[in-house]
Amino acid sequence: MTTPDWAPPGIDLDVPSPARVYDYLLGGAHNFAVDREFAERVTAVIPTIATAARTNRAFVQRAVTFMAEQGIDQFLDLGSGIPTVGHVHEIAQALIPRARVLYVDHDLIAVTHSELILKDTPTADVINADLRNPKDILASPRLAGLLDLSRPIGLLLASVLPFVPDRDNPLAAVAELRNAAAPGSFIALTHVIPEGDGDTTRKAAGLYQNAADSMAVRTREEVTAFFGDWELVEPGLTWTPQWRPRRPEQAGNGESSLALAGVAIKK
Questions:
Q1: Which residues contact 162 (CB under 8 A, 6 or more apart)?
Q2: What is the spatial distance between Cα 145 and Cα 72, in angstroms, rounded to a whole number?
Q3: Nearest-CA neighbor of 62 among 180, 156, 130?
Q4: H helices of 196-259, where?
Q5: CA–CA separation, 204 and 123 (whole Å)
């Protein structure tokens, strides 16, 4: 396959990327045949996966809105993926025009498109970095130029932690980010779990063994540990669509979302 003009050099067109698969499931156009084919294989195992992806994005929008309503005007989005309509800076700046957002992703496609979208937005930026190396993120000149870590911040880890295996110690990485945040900061995250149809979830995770990033399925207790000693806000850790839905009917069948979601505050 020939690399499209919009793709950065060095992209492997033979290996699916979770960020590009997610983009495809959301209806985006920044993906390759290998990503689409992989997404269809996952869909054959979990027919609701596209709905789950949209549910995850909707949670991020509600979480950002909630944080902005609490006065949070700066956000660090880890594993931000490929920007689509209704991304974090658009949601935050609709409530707080001065809000600043730094996106972080290790997928060059996601970073390249973020740079294009954000080139005329001085209050938002993107860096190519990996959650597994939080020191690099925290020491980034772009972070220092955009965010003030002495003030409360919103940390976003939506659907990224499943792609950091235990051998890379994601608990320590997230703890380092939490420790760098000022009191009054919030953290929002989502994570797939084996509750409900656990066999199906594990089968889908098995497919990701051949992707650029493998997928870990963790228990409710293991997901809770990522919040550390921060205090979960109501309704606590719950199925993704059931976290403060805008309308009761939007909560739907929580288990079909495949993932838990929660928001916590640093006291």
A1: 191, 192, 205, 215, 216, 217, 218
A2: 18
A3: 156
A4: 198-207, 220-224
A5: 37
Q: Vertex 77, ends 129 and 207: CA angle to 5°?
A: 70
Closest CA to 163 of 116, 102, 90, 106: 106
Classify the phi-psi angles of 19: left when phi > 0, otherwise alpha if psi is within -120 to 50, otherwise beta: alpha
User: Which pLDDT band, with edges at 50, 70 and 90, does 8 fall under?
Assistant: low
According to DSSP, the residues that pair with 137 across neighbouring strands are none
Q: Which residue has the tokens 């993120």?
A: 137
Domain residue spans of the chain: 18-265
> Do 136 and 130 form a contact (C-beta atoms < 8 A)?
yes
| Closest residue by Cα to residue 71 from 36, 47, 96 | 96
Q: How much of the chain exceeds pLDDT 70, in percent?
A: 84
Is the bond preceding residue 183 a cis peptide, omega within 30 degrees? no
- What gap in Å lies between CA 74 and CA 225, rounded to an integer? 24
Q: Quick one: fold of 18-265?
A: Rossmann fold (3.40.50)
Position 92 scores a pLDDT of 96
Tell me, what DSSP letter sits at residue 205?
H
Contact of 148 with 66, CB cutoff 8 Å: no
**Side chain identity at residue 102, one-letter code:** L
- For 14-32, how does the pLDDT look when each residue is reduced to its tens digit (9 = 90+)? 788 878 888 888 888 778 8
For residue 252, give the nearest of 79, 14, 52, 22 by alpha carbon: 52
Length of the chain: 267
Residue closest to 77 by CA, chosen among 20, 158, 178, 162: 158
Q: Angle, to 10 degrees, between the axis of helix 18-25 and the axis of helix 108-118? A: 60
CA distances from 181 to 139, 187, 191 (A): 13, 10, 21
261 DSSP β-pair partners: 190, 238
